[in-house]
Amino acid sequence: MHCRTDFLLERDFQELKENNFKGITAFPVSEDLMEWGADIEGLQNTFWHGLFFQLKINFTSQYNFVPPVVKFLTIPFHPNVDPNTGRACIDILDDPDKWNTSYTLSSVLLTLQVMLSNPVLENPVNLEAAQMLIKDESLYKQEVRRLLNQPTQLRNNSPEFPKDPDKLIRSTKAISFNDYYKTWSGIATSKATEYYRSPLLEDPNFVVEYYKWKKAELKHPKEWNLK
Predict the structure, then answer these.
(1) What is the pTM of this model?
(2) What does the UniProt record say this protein does (predicted)?
(3) Is 89 annotated as catalytic?
């Protein structure tokens, strides 16, 4: 019934399998590929590295003219994640004008991975997290870890892990951080505050560029750390 959508999701599935992005695991949990589960880990050499978050991703027959609906099941204490619903609030998911049909599931997951350590403090959906981060970053870090030890998780909506190992997409490969940062941060959020902004945030045209980077080592400059 949804031949075009099926083709695109199979393409996205293949892209994930071929690239094995570091810190990202994703898998379809329904036979029609409309519902996916995913796990992301924060970027290396950032506060979020070593922290893992489970997500649920729902597509419609209108994909990729419209973005998928993405929710964190393990809800991080983060300015850009709704603390009640787990909804990830980023431009490419919220603003139809910012979504592009060249974006894929890989685009979405990599953007969310970058979002964790690159919060947008303008119009945050979790005001408490944003205020704490601005006022006392050390306290904010403590609160993030405390809440992860007692996670706010939408357990009833947690996708069942697929029995077929071919449906599991594991992450083993790294890419150049400078290019990663330049490309994915440009689409990760609406406008980074000046405190978190870098000249590398200028180029959002990541799709063509990505395949030039995938064999490089992952290295991170200091400005990525939430000190």
Answers:
(1) 0.69
(2) Catalyzes the covalent attachment of ubiquitin to other proteins.
(3) yes
